[in-house]
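pipeline: protein-struct stage 2 | run 1193 | Exocyst complex component
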Amino acid sequence: FERMASLETAAEHERILREIESTDTNCIGPTLRSVYDGQEHGLFMEKLDARIRNHDREIEKMCNHHFQGFVDSITELLKVRGEAQKLKSQVTETNRHLQENGKEVKLTTSMEELRQCRVQQRNIATTIDKLTHCLPVLEMYSRLQEQMRAKRYYPALRTLEQLEQTCLPKAGQYRFCSIMAENIPKLRIQIRDTAMSQLRDFLESIRKHSDKIGETAMKQVHKHPETLGLTEFSRHGPTRPARQKGAPAAIRAGMGVNPLSEHDTGILDVEDEEEEDEVPGAQDLVDFSPVYRCLHIYTVLGLRDVFENYYRKQRRKQARLVLQPHSNMHETLEGYRRYFNQIVGFFVVEDHVLHTTQGLVNRAYVEELWELALSKIVAALRTHSSYCDDPDLVLDLKNLIVLFADTLQGYGFPVSQLFDMLLEIREQYGEILLKRWNITFRQVIDQDNYSPIPVSTEKEYRQYTSQCPFQDPELEKLPFPKKLPFSEFVPKVYCQLKEFIYACLKYSEDLHLSSTEVDDMIRKSTNLLLTRTLSHCLQYAIKKKNVGLAELVQVIINTTHLEQSCHFLEEFISNITNVPPDTVNATKLYGTSTFKDARHAAEAEIYTSLNAKIDQFLQLADYDWMAAVPGGENLAASDYLIDLIAFLKSTFSVFTNLPGRCGHLICPWDTIKKMYCCTHGHISLLISRKIKCFVNCMAHLSQGKTQQTFTCFSQLQIKSSIVLYFLKTSRF
């Protein structure tokens, strides 16, 4: 029990000690009273002393731990004391100064100086702020002036827009800002007018140099057709082909920057393009920057529609000028070339603008222009080509049109109408060829001697047989010298026929026609040459004045050989066109009928000549009715009758001079038979006429006159019997 009481006392003292330590000094009275009221205050005092000693030890430890810091603090405090003395002196001096300035006059002066200083500070701050806003305006206006002097109008317009919308509102209402604001519309008008002036200069320049642009483009296609991806295409397929990676595409690739971008000037970088493509394109000759620049400027000004309408209107006017041919264009090929060069140059420029601008010209506009141009080109070519009568010029024109069409085809324009028109010109070309060959054939006829060709050596023989197909085994066996049955007319005409075929073939080249179409065109033209031109020339040879029987016989011989050569002529056409002659619907040559008709005409001319000659002899009939009749003397026939018989003998001797069996080959039995019938008919008619005359006149004649008449008829019967016997027994 005592132990428990001591523990409780100790706990109570511990509580009291904690309360004393944690309680304010003014409030520990009740606590101490509770200690004195108890009986253990001595014990409490012991505990209190023990607690004090414990705290003293802790304080001592703490002081020992912080002693160095304390020393340092004291040292620092000593230093501060000196500074405090200085501060005290300054405060004293300031106080004295304030006391002196506190008087009324000096205070007013100081306050005024302070106010002015404050105003100056405020003005300086305001000026700095305003200059901060004005300097960008001045710098931008200075840059604008530099861009205007450098003629960089599109960047100047952008600067002007930024100056008006951003810088001037921030700068405030200053006089120079008002002046700048008033000048902005004037600067816009100046930029717009300058850009339009440059565009007009550009349009005038390309109008003058469009022929050079077109010439370059056509030369490029002529030298490097693969650069445009040109392949054989159908004349009836007007679809626009996909663009190849050729020269035009490569040129556009070199200008791949968006034309409407802010930093694009639209100027062609020719050096870079030449590095990428060694073959210069037609666009390398033109600087399109005025177009791009003017387009950008009008777009920024909100006048893009005005610019597009103006550009298209001016280009339409230029198109009409370009499409108007010169009145003497048909006289030389150079006139056609300039005409085509200008058209190609015009559409090369439009195609380039189409693919390097966004909407300045569209596909419909270009196609409309091309349709207009195509109709005018076709009409102009039809008109001017009709004046041409030189086949070489027509052929050169055809090649030029093909090059023109291929060039524009490479740029995607449909050209089927041009190839259709070339087929129309083909008909005209054929007519011109027929006229030229008509002159050639007439020259051959006029220069021909109508005599068989004499050959003295094998070389001469082979030379003639190589010019025209001729084979005669029996003639080849004969020794030299010998004669070919035909005259120079045959090999010359055959060679000219081949030359005509070659001329037709030249025109058909590069027209993208099939072999069958080419073969058909050549055969039709050759048929016209045979049935019209050569047939008329043969008629000219037959009907020509002073053509004797020998010449007519030679014409028959010549036409016979030409008729036999028609088969070889068909083979020649098949070989150069690679079309078999037995192809279905293949046109056949009409040479056989042509030469047969000519031969029949020659035979008819022979009959007509014989009839006319015999009639002339008969018209000379004159009898001497008063001639004396000596007794027993034989009377002679009249002179005209003797001449007639001599003429008939010499005429038919022409056939006896033909070598060997050539007569059968060159002058058929039908011809001889007709000649026989003609002569026999005239002689029979002569006899019948004279018999009638004899019956009518016998009653009025004396014996001498009757004897003269009988003598004439007897002589005529004898001579006519000789001639008829010769005809009947002839080897033909």
